[in-house]
Design a protein that fits this description.
The structure is a single chain. The protein has about 140 residues and is mainly alpha-helical. The protein is about 35% helix and about 10% strand. The protein has helices at about 5, 60-85, 100-110, 115-125; strands at about 10-15, 20, 90-95, 135-140. The strands form two sheets. The protein has a two-stranded antiparallel sheet with strand order 1-2. The protein has a two-stranded antiparallel sheet with strand order 3-4. Strand 1 and strand 2 form a beta hairpin. Helix 3 (about 100-110) crosses helix 4.
């Protein structure tokens, strides 16, 4: 007995006498008998213009995410640059003959006590001592 008969599947016999009735083959349930037919597909103006959703591959989704991240980083960098551009730019002073670091601290940093002003000038300019000479350019630290 064949498997098609045991499972009660419709069976048809071929001219050579063999039984056909397996799923997916002509003669199986829902399959037409004989050779499969071609279907006509409408083209041109007969076709309804239906927008199908875009299907993206994994590489496409990764590229899209990368571009979105790059745009976000660029926008963030631009905003941060614009905000920090408004900050005070460093002020420089050229030391004249006879000036001391204490005098410069008192003149340029009036909000700080002289001792703290001298320390701030030393830190800002990488000085180990309070010794300065004429013509030396000192950067005045931004208060804040």
């Amino acid at each position: 007995m064949s498997a098609a008969l045991a499972l009660d599947l419709p069976v048809r016999s071929l001219p050579d006498g063999t039984a056909v009735g397996l799923p997916g083959l002509p003669g199986a349930p829902g399959m037409p008998m004989g050779r499969p037919r071609l279907r006509l597909v409408p083209t041109g103006p007969d076709v309804d213009a239906v927008a199908r959703p875009v299907r993206m591959t994994r590489r496409g989704r990764l590229l899209r995410s990368g571009v979105a991240a790059a745009v976000a980083l660029t926008a963030g960098w631009t905003i941060v640059s614009a905000v920090t551009a408004g900050a005070a730019t460093p002020h420089v002073v050229t030391v004249t003959r006879g000036q001391t670091l204490s005098e410069i601290a008192a003149q340029q940093l009036p909000d700080l006590p002289v001792r703290q002003g001298v320390a701030a000038l030393q830190l800002e300019n990488g000085l180990n001592t309070a010794d300065i000479h004429a013509g030396q350019v000192l950067t005045i630290p931004v208060a804040g």
